[in-house]
Specification:
The protein has 126 residues and is mainly alpha-helical. It contains 5 helices and no strands. It has one domain. α1 packs antiparallel against α3 and α3 runs antiparallel to α4.
């Protein structure tokens, strides 16, 4: 069972590293997604990329997992509120927006579950 948990944790983390790298490689694409009330434009996207990569590394290496997954859940919530929900009102074709919204809701749930698992492990150690 422990091996399945390890594989699941790593598989959960890998896409965040890829998303983070994409924030550097596809900066113009992400700039086009920003709504007008997101500050600092490209700097926000670069910082987000760094945060996604850091969260991925943390989850894979099991260093500060509870902390990083809580921050990741907060970051995903911010994506939902500042990007996906406004795009529901802006975009003509809402299908892609709804898919992205549901993806981030799901990832936020997974992040909270991993955080909860590591919270329980900390209690058992003490």
């Amino acid at each position: 069972m422990k091996k399945l948990t390890t594989i699941g944790r790593i598989l959960f983390a890998i896409p965040f590293a890829i998303f983070g790298i994409n924030h550097f490689l596809m900066l113009d694409y992400y700039l086009g997604m920003l709504t007008s009330f997101v500050p600092l434009g490209a700097y926000t996207i670069i910082l987000t990329g760094i945060m996604l990569i850091a969260a991925s590394i943390s989850i894979i290496t099991k260093v500060l997992v509870k902390f990083s997954t809580l921050l990741l859940a907060i970051l995903l919530f911010i994506f939902i509120v500042t990007i996906h929900i406004p795009h529901l009102f802006i975009d003509a074709d809402k299908t892609i927006t709804i898919i992205a919204l549901l993806k981030d809701i799901s990832l936020m749930g997974g992040s909270l579950m991993i955080s909860g698992i590591y919270s329980e492990e900390e209690k058992q150690i003490k």
